Amino acid sequence: MNTTILGYPRIGADRELKVATEDYWAGRVGADALAETGAELRAEVWTGLRDAGVDGIPSNTFSFYDQMLDTSVLVDAVPERYRRLDGLDRYFAMARGVQDVPPLEMTKWFDTNYHYIVPELGPDTRFRLADGAAAKPLAEYREAKALGIDTRPVLVGPLTYLLLAKPSTSGFGTLELLDGLVDVYAEVLERLAGSGAQWVQLDEPVLVADRSEEEIDALARAYARLGQLSSRPRLMVATYFGTVGADALRVLARSRVEAVGLDFVAGPGNVEVLASVGGLPRKTLVAGVVDGRNVWRTDAKKALATCASVLGLVDQVVVGTSCSLMHVPLDLERETSLDPQVRGRLAFAKQKVAEVVALGRALSDDTPIPASEQLPEAGVDQAVRERLGSMGDTRRGDRAARFAAQRDALGLPDLATTTIGSFPQTPEIRRARADRRAGRVTGADYVKAMQDEIARVIALQEDLGLDVLVHGEPERNDMVQYFAEQLDGYAATDHGWVQSYGSRYVRPPILHSDVARPRPMTVEWATYAQSLTSKPVKGMLTGPVTMLAWSFVRDDQPLAETARQVALALRDEIADLEAAGIRVIQVDEPALRELLPLKNEERAAYLDWAVGAFRLATSGVKDTTQIHTHMCYSEFGEIIGAIGALDADVTSVEAARSHMELVGDLRAAGYENGIGPGVYDIHSPRVPAAAEMEENLRRALRAVEPGRLWVNPDCGLKTRAYPETEASLRNLVTAARRVRDDLTG
Fold first, then answer.
1. CA 332, CA 552: separation in Å to the nearest integer?
2. Hey, how many other C-beta atoms are within 10 angstroms of the C-beta on 495?
3. CATH 3.20.20.210 correct for 400-633+641-744
4. What pLDDT, in 10s, does the model give residues 105-149?
5. Cα–Cα distance between 161 and 174 in angstroms, integer?
6. How would you classify residue 647: left for phi > 0, otherwise alpha for psi between -120 and 50, otherwise beta?
7. Distance of CA 550 to CAs 2, 479, 482, 639, Å?
8. How large is the C-alpha radius of gyration of the chain?
9. In this structure, what DSSP letter does residue 103 have?
10. What is the dihedral of CA 346, 348, 352, 353, to 10 degrees?
């Protein structure tokens, strides 16, 4: 094996997986049709990688929803409330919920925009290997073998699975379940060996974060057990997203695993760590030198130099990707409308596979890398750089004075109700946007269609009785792409889809040069919506950190500097919204936790510039203008202080799946501003009862006084349908009124 990749996009060139999955959910196709689509997509990936010349081809990287959820099903870690369901119905209920059973929690996969379904484990959890189709690593290995392709099955490693799981009871440590889980992994490995598998990949990205002595001991125990199996494939332990801890690498070096994967893109320090532990004698190193997270072309000379620098520390070097390629779009060749200056700097998954193969050949038999032309450079906007250099203090005024001024200006009740921003994106809305892009309708006709939808959404919200309204965002394709298409320094793709969770895909824009705002981006739509109602309508923007996190960002300057450029553009937009009479402005930062470095020692510096960028964007307003922000689906405990430091007047957060846990955490941390914990989960199609939301509100009131508590869903509503949205929001308003009446009574 000279070349390999750690994973590949599973969605299909034309999002076939999304279409098939949503058709299954809607009852338009059955389980057999969905399974057939999955088989076709897997076969296409395996044969494509074989034909491209990849030596080590992974399998079991396909999923109908998420690889962590697949692992829970594989080891039968299914909470009792889902066991009355079978097969795919059980699987999707764990991910999405059903009317009477909420789903498992969902959060971000390390510092990416991919979401995973969090395993729920407790003292009563008893692992066992699932039978039949649920044992998918075995089934997919045999499926590939029937095509004449011998693959390397990929499993989430046992330590990563347990450390990313959530205890179902207080005081329980998931590592207590390690021995039972490793027993099941041993059975999987033995069965794969019996089927002919030569290699198995165990993904352990938790090893690039700080790990305790207990966790390192658990790592050693797990791989000692697996390494001693008398009948097993060769084992490759893959780490990625950063520099592996020296203690963890030392354990792997001493273990019987045959190969270790290290990420030399996000973790250039892996060269030093590898040397510090004495290398990996008699082991293969899978060198992740082709970036699996970003879209820039690989510097071949630099990649080969990295491989050469570790040749004396290992038995063999295999060229690979830094992580799975599922985090980048599929094929650059389809992007015919990109500016050639930008396109010349890019490589998507298919092109990155070709880079891996070329580098592997160059390393193994001195096949020369084709000479590449000089890559275009990023554009520079000197005016933006000069403005940033002259910016002064970005702190806002006294918190209490702002609170009083906003209370008088807005006249809102306690437990004010609102939504996060977007309303359902109907087929008619999407068709109107597509018609506008294709030139099938005039600009005036498009504006009229969007205004009609805004008027409908405003009227619906007034009928529902919400206190602070939104315009519904019908004109927006995505909360990042919409702004990127209007900012200088960004480029958008036509087919650059990447999975975010389940059937939710995004097209991250490409931030390639200095960022500037040539004209207002949202003022026209916000002021039109405000003209239709006497209630406040929120201006809706995406914050600077999220604009970076959900884009492919230039790598030729520090992220902090790029964030300040985006923040300056947003500052100008906020000033225009305020001047136009918009009294509430929401600047969403759902990715603030997402970009938090995995190493503790790097976090303070990140949070300093992330908070600074948000304040640069939002600090120019009057005390009477209320600034909101929103965050969702992250473990917030490690950024509680930063949430307060943003100094938004109101922060709305995901809280329904975690039963309001964050509210108590914020109170304990001394958070004093307004808080809107989500009272229902919008990522599930179920309609929660008013009593369920009322219970969540009463939980929140144990930690927050009524004047600071807002009532809202967990997130935007664009992925939902109108019937469930209207029913859920009616229940939300009912719950708020009941609790409000009790308080005033």
1. 14
2. 18
3. yes
4. 998 899 998 999 999 999 999 999 998 777 999 999 999 999 999
5. 9
6. left
7. 33, 9, 12, 19
8. 26
9. P
10. -150
Q: Residues near 485 by Cβ (< 8 Å), separated by ≥ 6?
A: 492, 509
Q: 244 with 280: CB under 8 angstroms?
A: no
Helix (H) or strand (E) holding 147: none
Kindly indicate the confidence band of residue 100, based on its pLDDT and cuts at 50, 70 and 90. Answer: confident
Active site residues: 683
Q: Which residue ranges make up each domain of the chain?
A: 16-365, 400-633+641-744
Is 16-365 in CATH node 3.40.50.720? no
> Whats the size of the chain, residue-wise?
745
Residue recorded with tokens 């189709």: 133
Query: Can you read off the two tokens belonging to residue 549?
Result: 């996190």
Using one digit for the tens of pLDDT, what is the confidence trace for 319-336? 999 999 999 999 999 999
- Structure-block tokens of residue 31: 């389980």
- Identical fold at 16-365 and 400-633+641-744? yes
Token couple for 535: 């209630």
Q: What is the DSSP string of 646-660?
A: H--SEEEE--TTTTT
Q: Which one, of 562, 477, 491, 475, lies nearest residue 525 by Cα?
A: 475
55 contacts 3 by C-beta, under 8 angstroms? yes
Question: Per the structure block, which two tokens stand in for 523?
Answer: 């003022």
* C-alpha span between 262 and 288 (Å, rounded): 6
Question: Could you tell me the two tokens for 494?
Answer: 């036509």
Strands 280-290 and 488-491: unpaired
Tokens of 697: 């509100």
